[in-house]
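Structural prep section.
Before we set up the soaks we want a predicted structure of the protein with glutamic acid in place, mainly to decide which crystallisation condition to try first. Input record follows.
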Amino acid sequence: MSTAAANPSAPAPATDLPRAGGLSISKRVAEMKPSVTVAFMNRAKNMKAQGHDVLSFAAGEPDFDTPQVVKDAAIEALNKGMTKYMPTLGDPETKKVLAEKLLKENGIPTTADHIAISAGGKHSLYVACQCLFDFPAPGEAPQEGILPVPAWVSYAPIIEIAGGKVVEIQTDAAGDFKITPEQLKKAITHRTRAFFINSPSNPCGTMYTPAELKALAQVIAEAAKTTAPNLVVVSDELYEKIVYGGIEHFSIGSVPEIAERTLTINGLSKAYAMTGWRIGYAAGSGAFGKKLIDAMGVLQGQMTTNITSFTYPAIRTAITKTAAEVEKMRQAFAERAGVIHARLAKVPGFKCPKPTGAFYAFPDVSAHFGKTSPGGNGTAGRKINSAMDFCEALLAEQYVAFVPGEDFGGCGKNCARISFACSIDQINKGIDRVETFIAGLR
Ligand code: GLU
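Run finished without errors. Recording the tokens verbatim:
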């Protein structure tokens, strides 16, 4: 007769009975921080739905509609019955279009076999981290993910849930929130598994120049020869099309010395106003790039299979047929960046570098810490000791939603993120309310 140990379906011995405390959530998820960007975006939406006159600058979401040709491509595919399972990483035709785009526009030496289409950039990042990081063996130090901060709030939790340890590199507003090659060199150890870079940056709204990225690539190439042979660069380029500060977007994965160890992540959400569609992709290069993408395919195959099948023609249309619409949106973001920068420069106590890419301003609001808000909209004034206090008070008393900067890491704790993917009229009204709020601080 089989024993309980040999037969997993046999009743558990008494010692394995559920412990006191009852039903629970896994520790790793119970301890995970909820996304503050998603939280403030949802709160603003809920308050609006309740009839409050909320001006939301919370969501990193273009206010434009998806270009009609893209919608039409999906509608046509749906009507044609393109409603069945597809290859996990995407249909070959769409992967080919993405590979050609990456080669032509970004100079990344990739092929259709090096592409993994996913349910959004966040999904690609999650899957990539699961494929890169190992959990430490007992007594072993964890593998490290180097993250310049402030960084988008989801990086750290995604690295940590994969078993990695986040090693932050600090930046500041005076340096446009950018790291130097020396800082990167110092941060790399034999435990470094991945280096994350996001240019244009969410939440900072600034960009690295091609020369700066090439200098960081040289540090990686050198470290890979000595200290960190297993080091991979994860380059998040979701905002590549939204640039307006005179700096050209550059893909670090195009640098030949590090192409094979670079995974480029991108998606359709921001450039093509397709946030709700949930479409992202990752691209590798060379033998290791193929190995990594194949591993991502194994995980995605156990996780999501393919993304919504009838969106594939829409992806191809977005990539190849919307240049005019993308340019129009870029120009609108450029104009808004100019307006918000000029307005923020006059807000007492705010310090904010000029946005050069993406659609975020990230002012330092810490000059107001230690003050008390005036109260408003039926709520009492409150003590402001943090960016979170500042944003909570602003939302409650003025119905203006910014995202508090703490969870972006580093000096983000002194900042508030403003997404200016909204009309100029809303920007002006919102900053008027901020000025009223600040004038009432005591
Ligand atoms: N990426 C956007 C943002 O930062 C959407 C929400 C999220 O995924 O964090 O606001």
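Observations: Residues 200 and 207 are 4 Å apart (CA to CA).
Flagged for discussion at group meeting.
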